[in-house]
């Protein structure tokens, strides 16, 4: 029985699976984004995120541990020099899975797996969205509502100018009181 065993074996023997995940992790670190199936992406996320966490501590011991998983000197250097610096403050969740749909040949679910801090398109799109503070409604604006909005804007402008007129009248009444005395 395989109760409480959540690890996906991906239909491969352990040596094949470890080699495949190491190669995919190398590609992800070097290219920052790869296209694969959803099952492989989820397995890769469990494989690569602890390595990225280890890369935050740049020591010889951590480099050797990560090298024992990746077996690629260039990928280890890239991980410790550039990726670890960019994700330094992030407490976890270094990868993102974006589902694409099904593959034509075998109908497998495809996706992109990418490093979160390297997707400039999503980073630039999220900043303006954070600044925009509008309410969304399901109602459609009719011509009567736009006219009502215009009248309320005009009323607000009148209300802003009205206190100024009252201030002038109070100043005039105070001048009259001073003149009477």
Automatic annotation (TrEMBL):
Gene3D superfamilies: Ribosomal protein L17 (3.90.1030.10). Residues 153-170 have a biased composition (Basic and acidic residues). Residues 171-181 have a biased composition (Polar residues). Pfam families: Ribosomal_L17. GO terms for biological process: translation. Keywords: Ribonucleoprotein, Ribosomal protein. GO terms for cellular component: cytosolic large ribosomal subunit. GO terms for molecular function: structural constituent of ribosome. Residues 127-181 are annotated as: Disordered. Part of the 50S ribosomal subunit. Contacts protein L32. Belongs to the bacterial ribosomal protein bL17 family. This is Large ribosomal subunit protein bL17. The gene is rplQ.
């Amino acid at each position: 029985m395989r109760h409480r065993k959540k690890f996906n074996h991906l239909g491969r023997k352990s040596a094949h699976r470890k080699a495949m995940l190491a190669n995919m992790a190398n590609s992800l670190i070097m290219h920052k984004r790869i296209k694969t199936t959803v099952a492989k992406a989820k397995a890769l996320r469990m494989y690569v995120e602890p390595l990225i966490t280890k890369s935050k501590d740049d020591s010889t011991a951590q480099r050797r541990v990560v090298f024992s998983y990746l077996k690629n000197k260039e990928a280890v250097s890239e991980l410790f020099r550039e990726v670890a610096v960019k994700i330094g403050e992030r407490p976890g969740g270094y990868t993102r899975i974006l589902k694409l749909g099904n593959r034509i040949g075998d109908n497998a679910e495809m996706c992109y797996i990418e490093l979160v801090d390297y997707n400039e398109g999503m980073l630039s799109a999220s900043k303006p969205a954070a600044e925009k503070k509008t309410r969304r409604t399901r109602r459609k604006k009719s011509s009567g509502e736009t006219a009502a909005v215009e009248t309320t804007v005009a009323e607000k402008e009148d209300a802003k100018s009205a206190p100024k007129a009252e201030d002038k009248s109070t100043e005039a009444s105070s001048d009259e009181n001073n003149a009477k005395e």
